[in-house]
Design a protein that fits this description.
Two copies of one chain form a homodimer. Chain A has 416 residues and is α/β, with parallel strands linked by helices. Chain A folds into three domains: 168 residues, MoaB/Mog-like domain (Molybdenum Cofactor Biosythetic Enzyme, Chain A); 78 residues, Alpha-Beta Plaits (2-Layer Sandwich), CATH 3.30.70; 153 residues, Maf protein (Alpha-Beta Complex), CATH 3.90.950.20. Chain A is 41% helix and 24% strand. Chain A has 15 helices and 17 strands. A six-stranded mixed beta sheet of chain A has the order 2-1-3-8-7-6, with helices on both faces. A five-stranded mixed beta sheet of chain A has the order 14-13-15-16-17, with helices on both faces. A four-stranded antiparallel beta sheet of chain A has the order 10-11-9-12. In chain A, strand 13, helix 11 and strand 14 form a beta-alpha-beta unit. In chain A, helix 2 packs parallel to helix 7 and helix 10 packs parallel to helix 15. The longest helix of chain A has 20 residues. Chain A is elongated, with a radius of gyration of 26 Å. The two termini of chain A are 44 Å apart. Chains A and B meet through helix 1, helix 2, strand 2, helix 3 and strand 13 of A and helix 1, helix 2, strand 2, helix 3 and strand 13 of B. Strand 14 of chain A pairs antiparallel with strand 14 of chain B, so a sheet runs across the interface.
């Protein structure tokens, strides 16, 4: 694909009031970066035709591809579509297939005003992106040397539609294909990854390689440009293998987003069940894993033992041990993993106890966390000192990552 | 405050790659909207001096206030500060207090390069915002008829700094004060709230009133402009009282963000303990409440009974009942709340069982959820049909909202 400088224009007053986060711009950017399209600007404007028109003029002057999100559909009078069609001199014409589809929706009992049918009016000659997740269709067209793609605003419509329709549309515009894969890394920071590969990265052009920091882990992205997908894949593979070798078992997955997702993949290949006893993570390990559809095949459940009473009464940990060693201790963490495994009948038990702050316990520094895992044969405990300057949410997330990392290492036969 | 059209420019290539969400723009927008400042544009550019310079020129041409986030500090060579100072013709001069502060940091063992000291170089004559949460200071200045405010990028620095320093700085620029309060509403949608108040809202100018949709609830914001805060508060109060009266017990709090926060406030006033037995929410109720510091005074813990085995083995629900009525049923929900209350010794027990999708159970439609609450005297169960077209995350969040809503109603003496 040629160099395509891209601007994403998100339309919605709720974004400017801070009532909604612009996750569309983030997710569309990530999808575009994976096919080698450079996003140079994000712009947000409210539901205001004048300001949208101005923003479109600015974008037209500097970008090759303009992606809009939001401002489609009846509640905003199809603002974006009207302004963009006008800016590129295209009339809006009724798409009969979309019109029929909207008509069918009425039969399902949704209330439609005449205004709703205007969603089926689209720029003449555009490629229609049917919305399988809502009512307002998206579309794409080329005009005046620019590419324009319009997507609905709700993230649960915008993102799957962009993946399903807009990415293949963009791929077709070029005889070059860009393919990108990432290695997801836990236990080594982005700056260390950068140091390991710096010389190589500077010497590489195609494929290219770059590390990126995420909240509690990082990733290494490898991207290749070629005439076919197969050729690009063939160029990427040896680089990925080489990087995997250098990074060793800090790599927890390829093209995954989270440690729990990597664990889910491993469990699908090697079915085992697990349960979790959580203190400072307060249910976040259970929540994260059960966010994934299909979790019930592997996750039996857990106990949120936020107080010593629950640690004793529900998990069955000896109160004298808690009294002697303290709730935040190696010994109690060990018991938590073993007891939750025993009472749920799971193959593996996880345990987490620690101080997420802001208040301490007078004994340990905030950020002290013990994470444990019990199998039939053995129990492992990691002692973490995540730093008293860290936020509560960072400490909770990082503690959960360590728990999933222990599972991951166990399932892949690594030393836990 | 006069009408201040505002543009937020966020600087960071990681935003354009989709690796990071622009929560700074959202949070700064929300803080500004509360003091009546209109945010008209968000712009994101990468770590690129040329494109930042262009964006600053555009912003200067249309906005009265430019807020930048990110691009301060050593990793990006203080890009934003350099470009903004140049654009407004101000030299950078060393701030001795900030320099001394950075020097002290070295004593704490952090590694500094000479480049780090450049963080203490700030536009001549600016107001320095000391960074109590990191190293790079922020600042504000007025030049060429514009106001410029620069903030560091990490959200845990940007947001508290903006609240502590930038908001008072902006308030001081005006002899008018804007005060805003919100009523948070659960159980009535934004469009209904809009209908209830539409005529009044159209007739109002100062104070003004507007409803906004959030993910699983909505809010009504009341804003007044006056010469003093006391005067603005006095103007707002009768409008808030009137709105509260019209909305009745759908109002769950004033100036709170979530139902769990409202529950926390109620529990602080009337201490009771609770526990939760969660099936389809998978620990999210526990996670949400324990996200709040101080949760341990009221939340004893819970059981994530993701499988029937845990419902029986850990909660002690009769397997025959689960067999007869099904895991997703009124009866099992009732037992879950009662049993978790019994085994933890809490004053109140919550229970949630349902289908979050995407897979169904062959009996109920996805989105069917039973939410329950047990006290010593009585157990209540709500049967919800949240809609099969909803996402898994929506169903889980909404189910949790209902559980917190039942707690909230109980604690305020309303019918549950």
């Amino acid at each position: 694909m040629k160099k395509i400088d891209t601007e994403i224009i998100s339309v919605g007053t709720e974004l400017l009031l801070g009532h909604v986060t612009n996750t569309d711009a983030r997710d569309v950017s990530e999808l575009l970066s994976r096919i080698g399209v450079n996003v140079r600007w994000h712009t947000v404007v409210g539901d205001n035709p004048g300001r949208l028109r101005e923003s479109v003029e600015i974008a037209r002057g500097r970008a090759d591809l303009i992606v809009t999100t939001g401002g489609l559909g009846p509640t905003c009078d199809d603002l974006t579509k009207t302004v963009l069609a006008e800016a590129f001199g295209l009339p809006l014409v009724r798409d009969e297939a979309e019109y029929a589809g909207l008509y069918d929706f009425i039969q399902l009992g949704r209330i439609f005003t005449p205004n709703n049918y205007a969603q089926a009016d689209l720029p003449a000659g555009c490629t229609v992106f049917h919305n399988d997740w809502g009512t307002a269709p998206g579309c794409a067209f080329e005009a005046q040397g620019k590419i324009v793609i319009m997507m609905p605003g709700p993230p649960c419509e915008c993102v799957p539609m962009f993946r399903k329709y807009a990415i293949p549309y963009l791929r077709k515009l070029s005889d070059e294909t860009i393919v990108s894969h990432s290695l997801r890394i836990f236990g080594i920071g982005e700056s260390t990854v950068d140091q390991i590969f710096r010389d190589e990265m500077n010497a590489m052009t195609n494929p290219s390689m770059a590390p990126y920091a995420k909240e509690c882990d990082c990733l290494l992205q490898v991207t290749a440009k070629a005439r076919s997908e197969a050729e690009a894949e063939a160029m990427i593979r040896p680089v990925m293998d080489h990087a995997r070798e250098k990074l060793g078992d800090a790599v927890y997955g390829e093209d995954v987003e989270t440690l729990e997702e990597a664990v889910m993949q491993l469990l699908k290949a090697k079915p085992l069940t697990f349960a979790a006893a959580e203190s400072c993570t307060g249910g976040d390990i259970a929540r994260r894993f059960t966010d994934l559809p299909g979790a019930s095949a592997f996750f039996l459940g857990g106990v949120v033992s936020y107080t010593n009473g629950v640690k004793a009464g529900v998990l069955g940990i000896d109160p004298a041990l808690i009294e002697e060693k303290g709730a935040v201790s190696f010994e109690v963490a060990k018991e938590m993993a073993e007891r939750v495994r025993a009472i749920t009948g799971a193959d593996l038990g996880l345990g987490v106890t620690g101080l997420a702050g802001p208040d301490g316990d007078g004994v340990h520094e905030v950020g002290t966390v013990f994470v444990s895992m019990a199998s039939a044969e053995k129990t492992w405990v990691r002692e973490l000192h995540l730093g008293a300057f860290r936020t509560r949410s960072f400490i909770r997330r990082m503690a959960g990552n360590h728990a999933f990392d222990m599972l991951r290492r166990y399932l892949t036969g690594l030393e836990v």
